[in-house]
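User: I'm designing a mutation panel for Uracil-DNA glycosylase-like domain-containing protein and want to avoid disrupting the core. Could you give me a predicted structure to guide residue selection? Please restate the sequence first so the numbering is unambiguous.

Assistant: Good idea. Sequence first, for numbering, then the predicted structure tokens:
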Amino acid sequence: MSLLSTIATFPAHGPIACRRCFGASTDETLTIGRWQAVNDPGAWGSAAPRILVLGFSKGFTQAGAYKTGKFENVPFKGMRPRLTEMLQALGLLQRGHAIDPTMRADEKDFAFGSLVRCSLARSNDDGRLECTGAVMPKAFSEEIASVTRGCAETYLTNLPSSVRLVLMLGTTDGYIKSCKKLIRSIHGSTYADINDVSYRAGGAIFVHVSHPSGLNGHHPKWMAGDMATPSGMKRKMAEAGVRAAMHAA
């Protein structure tokens, strides 16, 4: 039986006691087709944030830290310098300020997590598990899609009224398209496109920004903001979405 009600909610800082997708099983790992889900959901930062930052799912580095490290060190472990520079470039974090304190329970403005709170990985043709960006779009169409949707329904249906901006880390066209479709299906008539990377839903504005992973080779071009490049154009559209969210009355 699930430890968390199926009523949509927003999590406070700390490990989340949720087994919605695991049913009556007591296992910590769920296998669905080529996918593996590890029951290690968590939330970091404010329970009533202005800005919510969401990756797709914890990677191997973060999942490993969840098991053996300090809880506050888990989110975006190994990629915080890039995440910091990106938030500063968008005017959401002051220059010279560290991001680490924003991932603590006493944080007021930021919350951090992932679209899928449990850790997901997919078996490739060689039988090795992968959780890189290339597998992300497949999580919306393959067998694991029920988990992806279930997590979004649980944690993104009823956002706190304080939330103005939801930063979605990942700017591939396929990922943006899949996220838009998912959020639209959850929020219905409140959904409206702003531009190619930004949309309104549930009282907040969702904006897709560059994923800070070191494996993301497009990140430097996104940061440069050269409108002659697709990545640079996406940054400019992201800036417009952020302005719309943070300057709203």
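For picking mutation sites, this is relevant: Residues 158 and 210 are 25 Å apart (CA to CA). DSSP finds six helices and twelve strands in the chain.
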